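Encode chain A's predicted structure.
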Amino acid sequence: MLRYTALGLLIANRQGPWVLDEPTHYDAYIGLDVLNGMAAFTFFSDGGQRCFVRLERSQQKEKLLRSQVRAAVTAGVRDLLRTENASLRSIVLRRDGRLFACEWSGFCDALDDLKREDALQTGIVTGAVEIHKNHASGLRMVAVEKDLVSNPLIGSWFAINEHEGLICTTGEPFGLRGTVDPLYVGVVRGTLNLEWILQDTFAMSQLCWP
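Encoded structure for chain A:
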């Protein structure tokens, strides 16, 4: 009873009780999703020790305005950097669904603004990825041992090519009806390491933050 009461208090006060043992390959991620006229920007760094969400009303159904992304990203990254001795060598924009050109432009505008303020270094690594729960290829992953076919281990991944891959955020040894439906991850901007992106995606999926 005490355990669940304590967890409930943490959740109600927006405090994440779990962080990753090791930081992600890329220093910071900015998650972006839009639903029913509401845009959610999630700022994540230091393995989850710094993580917060900013909500913004949007007049657009799915595609955000360049100016709106610019303002939200600039303010959010400033907050990430407020910790003493904080610095970022890499930032990845992580879009749920399709990334629109105007959103990428707004992200780049924000980084340029921060560089002019000397908040970010000039050689910072940047890029963008798309995360799709459903994708046109319909690819699934299985584990094959002798003549038996089963679900793959959780965390299994497959590179379709150097820019696209699948990552299993569910799977063995956990019970599951049917076959695992992996996430599709695509590197759509910048020169990012696909294996690192898939590993970071899986790591972040393990943080239980209701």
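The longest strand covers residues 28-35.
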